[in-house]
Amino acid sequence: MEYTHSDTDLIKQPIGYWSWAAYKSVIDRTRAALAGIGTTQPQWWTLAQVARADTVRTRDEVSRLLRNYLDTGPETMESEIDTTIARGWITEDTEGRLGITPEGRAFYDKAAALQAELWTERHADISDEEYLTTLKVLQRFIHNTGGRAWHH
Description:
Elements: H1 7-10, H2 15-36, H3 41-51, E1 57-58, H4 59-67, H5 74-86, E2 90-92, E3 97-100, H6 102-122, H7 128-144
Antiparallel strand pairs: 1-3, 2-3
Helix pairs in contact: 2-6, 3-5, 3-6, 4-5
Protein name: MarR family winged helix-turn-helix transcriptional regulator
Organism: Streptomyces tibetensis
C-alpha cells in the first residue's frame, strides 16, 4: 500500500480525524454489506447476542448491552429488536426471554459468514501485532482524554 503522507507529516496529523475516518470507513462498508443481505447492523448485533448466548437472554439484557453501541436513545435498539422479531428471526416469550428461530439461525449463519469476510477484508496486510498495538494505542487515547469505551 502506498501512503499519501510521509512519516514526518503523518506524526503531525490529528488522531481525531484519522480515528473518525477509520470509523466511518469501516461502519459504512459494514452497513452497506449487511444491507446487501437485507439487515441492519443493530439487527445483526441482536441476532449475534441471541445466537451466541450461553444462557437465554432477555430483551432488556440485549437492549441495555447493545444500546451502548449506538449514539441514539434506547428506543432505536428496541425498534431493531422488534424488527428481528417481526421478521421471524427471534421469538420473545411473555417474560421477555429471546430465542432464535430456525429461520433466524439460518440468517445468522449467513450474516456471520459475511462478517467473517469483512473481517478478512479489513485486516488485509495488517498483522495481529499491528492490530493489537492499534487497539492499545486507541485505548490510551480514550483514557488520556477522560473518555470511556467498552465493548463486549
